[in-house]
Amino acid sequence: MTTVTGEPRIGDAFGEMIRDAYAVATGIGPRPLVGGRLPRPVIEIIERDDGLINGAPAAHYLDGPRDWQPYDHRAVDRVRGRTLDIGVGGGRIALHLQERGVPVTGLDTSAGALRVCRQRGVRDLVHGTVDAHAADDRRYDTFLLLGNNLGLIEGRERAPGFLAALAALARPGAQVIAHGTDPYGTSDAVHTGYHELNRRRGRLGGQLRLRLRYRELGTEWFDYLVCSVDELAELVHGSPWRLVDVDDGDHPYYLATLKLAA
Ligand SMILES: C[S@@+](CC[C@H](N)C(=O)[O-])C[C@H]1O[C@@H](n2cnc3c(N)ncnc32)[C@H](O)[C@@H]1O
What we know:
single chain, alpha/beta, Rossmann fold, 7-stranded mixed β-sheet, 6-stranded mixed β-sheet, 30% strand, globular, binds S-adenosylmethionine
């Protein structure tokens, strides 16, 4: 029996969303329809723990290079050697690298996202977290955290473990190329108030507590970090990595490059 709580059922909300976005983009698989007839747009719903809700079209997760942001191009230009695309999503970056002959592995916690990657032709995929993957016998020269996925560093508590897992997966001389966003340029009181609230509860200002929703599904609440370059430098300090370059040509977005300390 269905119990009515108003709460989402916990499941692979990102995977189902990407599956539907892929169906809309390609006509492969059932497309979401309104009233069984008109196309329904596929929207990613992101809830923040202060009640803020944002929605954005999901189609960009499947974009080809022509529709990428300039920093995505600059990120892939920095790739060298065996590459792990962490949080591969719909596979837009991995697919492009694979076509350019780069040995690339896509890793994601969403089984549905990996299914879409496979359908699109990404050959090497791993289901799980970097921590679990560190136990496998695979080592990499480049780690990608694109599409704002520097966020996976989460905050002060998670950063040391996350960076250690990457180091365990790294070959000598390895690099991390991470896309981040400086959250502090805004004067929007909804955001500046949230940053203040976070600091009062001992978190970094841009340490977002989020969950994704898609149709009746939702994820568990998780932390996702949006941080300044100075905050990133602090988090990296004392880890096996050194922050060696920041490309902020598209401020407030930036690409941070970390190098494995010798
Ligand atoms: C914002 S999307 C970015 C997708 C892709 N990198 C891009 O640029 O289009 C975040 C992706 O990270 C995945 N993800 C979330 N938490 C993860 C984790 N702990 N480990 C690996 N992947 C994760 C999500 O399932 C999703 O595919």
